[in-house]
Task: structure prediction
Amino acid sequence: MSVTSGGRVLVLGDDTRSFLTVVRSLGRFGLEVHVAWCPLNSPVLRSRYIAAIHRLPEYRPEGAEWLEALAALLRQTHFDLVIPCHDSGLLPLHEQRARLEPLAPLALPGAEAFDVFFSKRRTYEVAAELQIALPRQRIVRSLEEAKSAAADFGLPLVLKPQSSARIDDPWSRQTVVKIRDRAALEGLAGNRNFDPGFLAQENFCGAGVGVEVLCREGEILTAFQHLRVHEPLHGGGSSYRRSVTLHPGLLEATRKLLRATRFTGVAMAEYKINLETGKWILIEVNPRFWGSLPLSVAAGLDFPRYLYEMSCRGRATFPQTYRYDLYARNWLADLYWFKANLESDRGDPTLMTLPLPRVAREAWHVLALRDRSDTLTLDDPAPGMAELWQFAAAFGGARLERSGWWRKRMARRAASAVHGARRILFLCHGNICRSPFAEAALRRAGGGREYRSAGYHPVEGRPSPEAAVRAAAGLGIELGAHRSRIWSAEEIAWADLVFIFERRQRERLAAVYPEALAKTHYLGALDPAGALQIEDPYGHDGARFEAVYREILRLLDAAALRA
Result:
């Protein structure tokens, strides 16, 4: 089909792979691509295919500002389709679909499919009814039940949350944990809350496989399959993948699941397959675009374009063939994989390592022109180059932070900022441990300045942990009445100086409020001889809290803030 024009889409995304691929696909098709709810430091925003960037308020479970702003944008600008590429966009749209769907078509799974595929427990229940292969599993709600599952299934034991993402915190993926030995199993007691229960599964050794589809009312219109070549040693998203022929059994299992839920849209069903025995199990179904999307598009199945054509133009027939044995690589993630694979025990069957000779032979894929980059393309090179620059800057910055002369420079800049500041904001992740302690310590000392603290965890009104309250009280600081606050544009603008505790707070500022970076400093920078980053004591005992709080007081005193 020839390139067309005249349509307009709004794409919501916060990653680089699927988000960038959707933008490029629709832009190449001649559509006017607008983006929103994306990190403002994202390399994707450098794409030549983006026509407009909309800066909307962040989603907040208890607030309506985000909803009013998004609704106003949809009323003011006609969009043929709104496409969320990640859970952080999809979950809020689903929650408010009754309000938003009259304003613009939303690329969302139906209510039944949403309820099934956003719950691993429900996915497995439906799969069991359809007689689809699953690992042995049960729900555990206590350490004793986890130990019982380990006795029955053996170690390693896989612990999965019942859902991967929650509407109260759609940015945070609920992580899967692999319990490898008895010590790790005993350690669950202090590090994991079992409410409302986890899925404990028997470990299955095999390679990751994805079956990617476009569906209408449960009928598959086209399908693609990839095999993971490089996977994190303990599991997770792959950094290197290969296009392979469709496996009849996996395709049929995917078809059953999507028919059972009358699914419409794009989805990826994830499996594990033992390449020696041929046995396989279902892992999950992602009812949205997937991280390995660049490979399917490069191989000839353009799922973002097909979704638009199906949803907006009624197209029902799509290509059924694609190029096999094509590879796509997330180069930055693959660098870390190479290092981990080199340093790990390749004799451990529970680790997804590869023999070094096999890894060396992969160079042939590049020479044979069968290797693609997830982000770097000839027609749109800027995002890939921006990503490389960000990686180089982060790597160089980390090395600089370890050098004495740079730390002294940071200390001078931080001290100068303190001298000229009348309004100081302390920013950490949840605003229940570090930042409220620093604020309370300075409020108690007085001194004529104004102090506030905040966090970016999207739940407001949380109290500080008991261990934090006790440790602070032992140092003469009251945290019992504190309740967490979420950062806002107004609070960021209010501050003359923003103190952060870790690199991840700087990264979040760069993504949401980049204008604040010029007045942001590490609290640890106040002492060039000490640790730059003050790690979060959340989840640890009182001794850890006391050590962190004593360090915060020492740094505040070093800057004469409590004088």
Observations:
- Residues 268 and 286 are 5 Å apart (CA to CA).
- The mean pLDDT is 92.
- The radius of gyration is 25 Å.
